[in-house]
Amino acid sequence: MTTPGKDRSDRSPWNWLLIVPIVLPLLPFLFNADGPRLFGFPRFYWLQLAFIVVGVTCTTIVYQMTKRKR
Amino acid sequence: MSEHLTEIIIFTFLFLLVSGMGFVAARWRRPNDLATLDEWGLGGRSFGSWITWFLVGGDLYTAYTFVAVPALLWGAGATGFFAVPYTIVVYPIVFLVLVRLWSVSHVHGFVTPADFVRARFDSPTLALLIAVTGIVATMPYIALQLVGIEAVLKTMGVTGHLPIIIAFAILAAYTYQSGLRAPALIAFVKDTLIYLVIIVAVIVIPAKLGGWDGIFDAAKAKFDASPAPGDGPLLNANNQLQYVTLALGSALALFLYPHSVTGVLASRNRDVIKRNMSALPAYSLLLGLIALLGYMAIAAGVKPIGTDNNTIVPQLFDKMFPDWFAGVAYAAVGIGALVPAAIMSIAAANLFTRNIYREYLKRDATDADEARVSKITSLLVKVGAVLCILFLDTGFSIDLQLIGGVIILQTLPAVALGLYTRWFHRAGLIAGWIAGMAAGMIMLYNISNPATGKMHFAGSAFPLEQLGFDTKMTVYAGILALLVNLAVAVIGTFVARGARLGEGNDVTQPDHYFADEGDPRVKELDLTH
């Protein structure tokens, strides 16, 4: 039982970009502070919410760059 | 009760509307034959990006989350916000792992993670352990969805267990009939309602309370006045490690839960999964805003009903919204409980059917047998969840769910690492599972909370002091248990190789992990050889 295209793989240098949104949210010294506030949000809250955008950006780039040509 | 009449009418109307959709779902994207697990339990493995986004989003971000996370912030502050980093790191972590699982499952027709382990390591025993872990971890999770509905009903002045039993009976009936298509269709309504309610809430409530600055200051004032050492609007030196390990551990656990795997395997191809890994964080943003409802409740001076902190969010809505919109908000939470409860019961039923019934009770089960057994099991699972709520203390369900997160993590070496390497020996993996389980249980048992007088199972923050370290720092018990598991699995693998124990037959091949839609499948996978 084989599938066509045996040379396929998930390897891509773009995958390394995924490390950024894994590491950033796990570094409390970056966000564990009150100031500066943004729209009234202490840094602890707005920066962690901003990491969501970082995550979306990185995964979107990796998806677009590793998408299979059909 | 009469003062809540408008809310009750709107809630009931939306609930019945959605129930009707659940029954109609059997006809949606109708297959030739619903009597196979691929169709009933995985929606024909045919869902595209949009359906998958609603389905998996509705599956992972449950009603209980929406009620419990703000309650955590209300009670303890910053530590409750771990849900945000948790749901950020999970997607990049599983981005590459899940496409491999999808591919190999596509080729071999796997329905559950235990199916994969069975084929990869040729060990029915290991597969049984994975299946039982999944079922045990899922059951209390379903029960907790009922807690979400109960919190809403309580606020509307509806007490007693009858409404919950009726709601679950309806849910059980349409899940039985329509399978995974029911929650997939209902998820559209659920998520639209939730997004609507939360967008309105984060605009209207802060405006009424005088802005975000005031909300955060009110939270700070509350925690400054409280004597508890661990609370506050920011983390302190002793709970940062717990915050980070809990976020990471929960992220590693999330896609080991059978219901998450069910949602992923139901998608059409690899690109659908990758696209969803970048689109699902939209729900994390929503969750972050929902979490802050806890602080809004502090600023608004909202009090829970009795000692049930989970009623904080419904109480806030009751105070801040006109009756009709509060009704919509309650319906969003109530319907939000139905989607994950349905998927979880389907996932648990599939595990029983594939890895217990077919493996140990009826080896020559046909597709129709499997579908029938799964449908019946999904009913039993829901009855079990209702009994949990009726006869056990709610606190006990929460304890069980806490334990669930720790134990499901112990399937990581076999399922997630197994997708990448066959290096581990099946005997080593079994030994690691036993050691990780034991370590996890012992740690959870020894976690106490002097503030509530609870001596055992009082949370997941394990004090490093108990291991002989001179510190007040705590760490997530699940991560420590996983480290024990991995260490024993490695040692066990060396021992098993040294003793020349059989390695078993791996029926998967390297290229199976890259297969995509349209690639040939192994039609009749022989799991019994």
TrEMBL record, chain B:
Entry annotated with the keyword Transmembrane: yes
Pfam families reported in the protein's UniProt record: SSF
GO cellular component: plasma membrane
Keywords: Membrane, Transmembrane, Transmembrane helix, Transport
Entry's Gene Ontology molecular function annotations: transmembrane transporter activity
Topology with respect to the bilayer: Multi-pass membrane protein
Listed Gene3D superfamilies: Sodium/glucose cotransporter
Principal cellular location given in the protein's record: membrane
Subcellular location(s) per record: Membrane
PROSITE patterns: NA_SOLUT_SYMP_3
Keyword Cell membrane listed: no
Residues spanning the membrane: 6-26, 47-67, 73-99, 126-144, 156-176, 188-207, 243-266, 278-298, 324-352, 373-392, 398-420, 427-447, 473-496
Coiled-coil positions: none
Family to which the UniProt record says this protein belongs: Belongs to the sodium:solute symporter (SSF) (TC 2.A.21) family.
Annotated protein name in UniProt: SSS family solute:Na+ symporter
Species this protein is from: Streptosporangium sandarakinum
